[in-house]
Design brief:
The complex is a heterodimer of chains A (278) and B (493). Chain A has one domain: MetI-like (MetI-like fold). Chain A is built from twelve helices and no strands. The radius of gyration of chain A is 24 Å and the shape is globular. The two termini of chain A are 37 Å apart. The C terminus of chain A is likely disordered. In chain B, helix 12 runs parallel beside helix 13. The termini of chain B are far apart. Chain B is an alpha/beta fold and 493 residues long. Chain B has four domains: 27 residues, no CATH class; 130 residues, D-Maltodextrin-Binding Protein, domain 2 (3-Layer(aba) Sandwich); 243 residues, Periplasmic binding protein-like II (D-Maltodextrin-Binding Protein, domain 2); 40 residues. The chains are: A mainly alpha (278), B alpha/beta (493). At the A-B interface, helix 4, helix 10 and helix 11 of A face helix 1, helix 3, strand 7, helix 20 and helix 21 of B.
Chain lengths: 278, 493
């Protein structure tokens, strides 16, 4: 009882020590969010509904959905992102499982090796990978294959990390209990480990699927400019065609798709495992 | 004490903000001392010159770079007073002048530049008239101090590509051996002009003057756009890819045999390939690494481009701007810039002829009488003077990338800017060329599949909330199904 009181006192003392209340400490973050998140989003929405004459219009959206080229590009982007995500899960899950269990990874050294490439600029990595592929002769077989290889190479750490986090945080006694009670190792995996690691997979998917839909630097580098994804289309509206309105409309449509896909993958998340979302 | 501490903390937090504002103040203050804000393409100047300019005049150069003309245009639209001098290409200068975003220069302060500028280039620039806006009737030469200029053509590997193939834009694509060994530019203007040259090949061959060629290469009718789109689309199976700056590496590495290049880039690629073929002592290394590259501007015609310094209309930093322009146009500094960047300056003086043309290219002493090709560059350096240079056949392409002959420039046209209406149409065409277009039924089918999957996922997610979806609960427990008997254990002690 006495101890609790002291704790309380300390806490109050902590917040007045600098002469700010918690609310006041939040102000810089609020200003930051307003300047760099809210206002840009509002600008995108404003531009998206503006015609070239400056008035309100829905033309930009009509143009997007009535053109088979833009829809085809969107479909290709989704398919490429989907393929990348699936390959990433297939590669990352066993790896994360091994890393989480293995003695090799004492002190996280092995994990570190997989994370280190993330510290190097990704354009540089992409170009190096392209040269490597050219050297081995894989490059040039198929441009779509090249792009998927490039994207998987670049984004697989984003899949490994959340799955690894979830697996290390998992209560091992559950697995032990399952094995003790007679379930086979396979059944233990499918009934205990896999369902418990779902939140990690889900957040890995959101972290890989969404960027790969727009990351046109990789599709340009690995596809030799012969593969256009939706991010490239948006970029060209701003850089080459000075059509900010159509570009913003496309960005908004993409945002809607992202939100929907997030909502769908959100089905795997439960409140108590939110920690897996990096 | 707490108050003081908190004050210090607040001050620390706010410090970056103050310094940010402080910078602005510094820039304003130093305007009395002198500064000039220059925005140029990357790798387009000898950076040591900027330090020397500062030493000589005390004027600080605030130097930055931009990626493409369009990016620069966006920057000028968002913040008109961000630079005192920028270096766009001729079509962007035209567009900026039409929109009144740049101001005419006073050439009374630039008499040396006026004297040294090539008369031929001056004439070509005078041909580009501003047709609309408050500067209607002016020429783009009233706005710009010429910097670099060049042409566009094929850079090709002479071992694998026949000279006859590159004599027309389409010829390369007819040689099946070059399948997947060619790249073109991932930039709509450059690819559009090539498309036009292919579609109107016959008319271009009949054209006799720059005006006629220019009219054909500036055609933006709907018909022309459609034809160009079709033609570019038909090239795709032959292409290694579209590129903006990887082409020069790919051709040196041997991944491709021909690529569309701006002359300065082409010169760079040819030089790098020649250097790669030698080791440190200048000895030739393994033969398979030698790539003999050359440059050719196809016979039917091509694009000629001019980059120059222009002054945004919001800038009032006149004194320093003119000092900088005078400095950068001095022949000795021009030579250093050519040396550093590999591009060709619009300034034409005897020093430059001797230093660059004779110094770099002349092989008359090594060649036998009657051998080699003699090129007359007097159109550029000044009519009446003796400005010839003799080169071997191997180096001819390299010289044409640096100083094209009078015959080449006479078939090269300036391409005007696309107005916003044309831009929309060209954009549509380019999207079709660059992207993959599925038939409508594929699109409809895909959308249906996605919708079905989404509905299923949503139903699974909300199955607890939807009554009719509730699965019948298992009535039996695991033990009951297995026929196990449950014994209640009491009093374990």
């Amino acid at each position: 009882m006495r101890k609790e009181k002291t704790l309380n006192n300390e806490r109050t003392a902590g917040s007045v020590r600098f002469g700010f209340s918690r609310r006041q400490l939040c102000i810089p973050y609020g200003v930051f969010l307003l300047c760099f998140v809210i206002i840009p989003l509002v600008l995108i929405v404003v531009y998206a509904f503006r015609g070239n004459d400056g008035g309100f219009t829905l033309d930009n959206f009509v143009k997007f959905f009535s053109s088979t080229t833009t829809i085809s590009t969107l479909i290709i982007s989704v398919l490429l992102a989907l393929a990348t995500t699936i390959v990433c899960v297939i590669i990352a899950y066993p790896l994360a499982y091994i890393l989480a269990r293995s003695n090799l990874n004492r002190g996280g050294t092995l994990l570190m090796l997989f994370i280190v490439p993330m510290w190097i600029n990704f354009v540089l990595r992409a170009m190096a990978m392209k040269d490597l592929l050219t050297l081995t002769g894989i490059f040039g077989i198929n441009n779509y294959l090249n792009v998927i290889i490039g994207m998987v190479y670049d984004y697989v750490p984003f899949m490994i990390l959340p799955i690894y986090t979830v697996l290390t945080k998992m209560d091992k006694s559950l697995v032990e209990a399952s094995l003790d009670l007679g379930a086979s190792p396979l059944k233990t995996f499918t009934k205990v480990t896999l369902p418990l690691s779902m939140p990690g997979i889900a957040s890995g998917i959101t972290m890989v699927f969404m960027p790969t839909m727009t990351c046109y630097v990789i599709s340009d580098t690995f596809g030799n400019g012969l593969i256009t994804i939706i991010g490239k289309l948006i970029d060209e509206q701003f850089t080459a065609f000075s059509n900010w309105n159509f570009g913003s409309a496309m960005a908004m449509i993409l945002l809607a798709i992202m939100l929907i896909s997030m909502w769908v993958t959100g089905s795997f998340k439960s409140e108590d495992t939110r920690g897996a979302n990096l | 004490m707490k108050r003081i501490l908190s004050f210090i903390l607040v001050a620390l937090i706010c410090l970056p903000t103050f310094t940010l504002f402080g910078c602005g103040d510094d820039a304003k203050k130093s305007s009395e001392v002198g500064y000039v804000r220059v925005c140029n393409c990357a790798d387009y100047i000898d950076l040591d010159l900027l330090d020397e300019f500062e030493e000589e005049t005390g004027i600080k150069v605030i130097y930055s770079t931009f990626g493409t003309n369009e990016n620069l245009y966006n920057e000028l639209v968002i913040n008109p007073n961000s630079y005192d001098l920028v270096v766009p290409s001729e079509y962007m200068i035209e567009k900026l002048a039409v929109e009144g975003r740049i101001q005419p220069l006073n050439f009374d302060y630039l008499t040396d530049y006026q004297d040294n500028l090539s008369d031929y280039i001056q004439g070509r620039l005078n041909d580009i008239e501003i047709k609309e806006g408050k500067y209607a009737g002016n020429k783009i030469s009233d706005f710009m101090v010429g910097y670099m200029w060049g042409t566009m053509g094929w850079v090709y590997n002479t071992d694998n590509v026949n000279i006859e193939d590159v004599k027309s834009w389409y010829g390369v694509f007819e040689n099946q051996d070059l399948s997947k060994r060619i790249t073109i530019k991932d930039a709509v203007r450059d690819s559009y002009i090539i498309g036009l040259a292919m579609v109107y090949e016959e008319q271009l061959k009949l054209a006799n003057s720059v005006e006629e060629i220019s009219a054909i290469l500036n055609n933006t009718n709907q018909d022309a756009i459609d034809l160009v789109g079709e033609r570019l689309n038909s090239l795709k199976p032959m292409l290694y890819g579209f590129e903006v700056d990887s082409g020069k590496n790919d051709i040196v590495l041997g991944n491709i045999d021909a690529y569309v290049a701006w002359s300065g880039d082409g010169a760079y690629a040819i030089d790098v390939a020649a250097r790669e073929a030698e080791d440190e002592d200048g000895e030739l290394i393994a033969e398979e690494n030698i790539r003999n590259l050359s440059y050719y501007v196809p016979d039917e015609g091509s694009n000629i481009w001019f980059d120059g310094f222009v002054m945004p209309s919001a800038s009032t930093n006149y004194t320093n701007v003119y000092k900088f322009l005078e400095f950068i146009s001095r022949p000795e500094n021009v030579i250093r810039n050519i040396d550093e960047t590999g591009y060709t300056s619009m300034v034409a003086t005897d020093e430059i002829y001797e230093e660059i043309v004779l110094g770099w290219f002349d092989e008359s002493e090594d060649l036998e009488e009657g051998e080699g090709i003699t090129v007359d560059l007097s159109y550029f350096f000044g009519e009446g003077g003796d400005y010839t240079v003799t080169v071997s056949e191997e180096s001819y392409g390299r010289l044409m990338a640096q100083y094209p002959s009078a015959e080449i420039v006479s078939r090269c046209a300036v391409m005007s800017y696309f107005d916003s209406y044309t831009l929309l149409k060209v954009n549509e065409m380019w999207e079709k060329v660059k992207g993959q277009t599925f038939p409508t039924w594929v699109i409809v089918l895909t959308i249906c599949i996605v919708a079905v999957i989404a509905i299923i996922i949503v139903l699974i997610r909300h199955k607890d909330k939807i009554k009719w979806l509730k699965l019948p609960q298992r009535k039996t427990t695991y033990a009951e199904r297995k026929g196990l008997k449950i014994v209640k254990v009491e009093n374990l002690d």
